[in-house]
Structure formats: C-alpha cells, structure tokens
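Researcher: Re-running this chain for the archive, since the previous output was lost when a drive failed. Same request as before.
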Amino acid sequence: MTTDLGRFAPTRQWMRAHPLATDAVLAFGAFTAMVVGSFADPHGPHGPTFGTRTPDPFSLLLMLLGAAALVFRRRQPRAVLAVTCGLSLLELTTGEPRAPVAMCTVIALYTVAARTDRPTTWRIGLLTMAGLTGVAMLAGPLPWYAQENIGIFAWTGMAAAAGDAVRSRRAFVDAIRERAERAERTRDEEARRRVAEERLRIARDLHDVVAHHIALVNVQAGVAAHVMDKRPDQAKEALAHVRDASRSALNELRATVGLLRQSGDPEAPTEPAPGLGVLEELVDTFRHAGLPVKVIVQLDRAAGALPAAVDLAAYRVIQEALTNVRKHAGPGARAEVSVVRVGPSVEVTVLDDGGAEPSAAEPGGGHGLLGMRERAGALGGSCFAGPRFGGGYRVHAILPT
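Model: Regenerated structure tokens:
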C-alpha cells in the first residue's frame, strides 16, 4: 500500500532517513510553542490576551529541558515520558504564572502510545492523566476547577488516543503489506508447482508414446528382417506395420510437444487426447505385432461418460502394460485386458501368462511402472503391478471417477 505524497514525498523520505534530526526539529518547534504560550494570559478581561505576563527563568529552564528530552523520544520513549512528567509536575507545583511545560509530556505520551500495545497504552495513559491532573488540582496555585487543569486532562487523553490510533493504522498497513507479500510468494510457488506438474505429465506422455510405438517398430522390424528372404510378402506387411507405428508415434509426439506452444499459436494441435474410445485401435497394433490380446470392457453408460483425465489415464495404463508384456514376456505370451466400472471407480486390469520362455529382463527397470502409479495417484487412485502366481504379470489400477 503506497500513498502519493506529491511534492511532500522528498521531505518525508528525508524524515525517515534522519529520525534524530526530525525529532530535533520537533523539539525546537515544541520549545518555541511553549515559550510563546507562556506569554499568554487566559484570564484577560476580554478573553485570552498576549504579552500581559512573562514566565520566570525557572519555567524557561524546565521548558528547555523538556524540549531537549524530546530529541530522544524514539530511542527511549518511556524514559523521555518519565522525564517530561517529572518536569511537568515540578512546574505545576511551583510555577507562578504557570508555563505550558505539560506540552512535552503530551508529545512523549503520544510517542509511547504509538510504539506499544493497547493495554500498556491504557495503563500508562491513565496513570499520566490522573497524576498530572490530580497534582494540578490539589497542589497547584490555581483552583481545582480551573480550565487549565481540565485542559491537562483533555490533552493527555487525546495524546494517548491519537498514539493508539496511529499504532493501529500502522499495524493494519503492515498486515496488508505482509498479506500481499505472502500472496505473491504463494503465487510464485504455485506457478512453480504447476510448471513441475505439467513437465512431469508431458514426460509421462512422451514416455508412453515412445515406449509403445518403438517397441512395436522393433518387433515388426525383427519380423521383417527374419522373413525378408523366404517370405517377402510377410516382410512387406511387417514393414507396413512399422510405417503405421512410426506415423502414429510422430502424430502423438507432435500433439504432445504442441502443448508446449503458446496458447495463441494457430498451429497448436486440436485433436482430442486418446482414450478408451480408441482402445481397439491400440489393441490391434499389439495383435499385428504378434501378441494375442483379449479385451473386456464393462462400463455403465447410464452413469455418464468418464472424465477426460480418467479416460486418458486408463488408456495410458493399458498402453504401458501391454508394451511391457510385448517387451518382457516370452514367445507365445497372451494378454487379457479388462476395464470395469465398480461404483465410483474404474478398475483397469492387464494380465499376461508369461509365455513359453519369459525374457530375462524384469519389468520395472524404466519409468513405465512409475508413470502408471503417478497417473493413478494424481487422480486419487492406486496402481499395483507384480508377478502372478504360476507365471506372468498383473497390473491393476483403480481410478476414481
């Protein structure tokens, strides 16, 4: 929160940079006001008159000492208040005519109230008000009901109230500034967290796309190389699958990398993310690669369509699980995929029998299983992957809808 001070801004900046000099100027002004006020007689025949009385030297000395104490009002506010109160009490009991030494106490009391808490302000303010007013009424040369005595009570009370109001406003401004700074820090942390989550999501998508399609390309390329001489027709078919898999990989990579573009880029892709609606196309790529896959999908359409995040996560889990089967299971392996909606969740299960001779490489050496668990965890679900009794592997994910 800032205040436009206009032409007074340089002056205020100088006052903040030189507090002792500022207090010295204030003390000089208070001394001048007290000296001038000591020449005024409030009991003139036609109201207050000026120049009809003269303060004695002792009162001038008390005013000078009180003004000098105000120079240190910010460094030692309570000590300055005690000194000015003592000087004021001395003037109230001995001064004739009385000089306005209590003005120093008013300024010191305001400083204490502006720099302490409210209960302390009440205690010190009431003690100062009662002490000065009581001494002025009972021990002073004027009658107890004189307006000067009532004026001391009023001025000290206003000083305490003004100081407390200034302290409350400063605390309010500081709280607003702190809240704004905390909001700024929180906004920066939230932005960094969102960037990290987005990078992790894109990394998962890239891994799923590359791992799936490269595995299929590797298998079909091996088939083509194996039958190239004896069965060229089958080699051509395998190479056609290689071409299709590579084209799909390029398309999905283009769509994923397109997310990194600016929102106003006209070339950003607009195709929807893959989901269970194209599950058969995904499974067909594995079947063409020589992996028999059985699919069972039981989704209650009456319960409504799946959320986009759940649909994509289920697709990616199946894709990664089948890729691991193709990479790590032995020849003749068979897989089974089931997608079942159970209450508020979708359960995705991918099973394989391990094949005749399972590969020596164990799943889990890369980021595939970690990516599946992160996808499920991001939706508040879970994902379990492990060997089956009797051979094979099982992946089971629960995705809340």
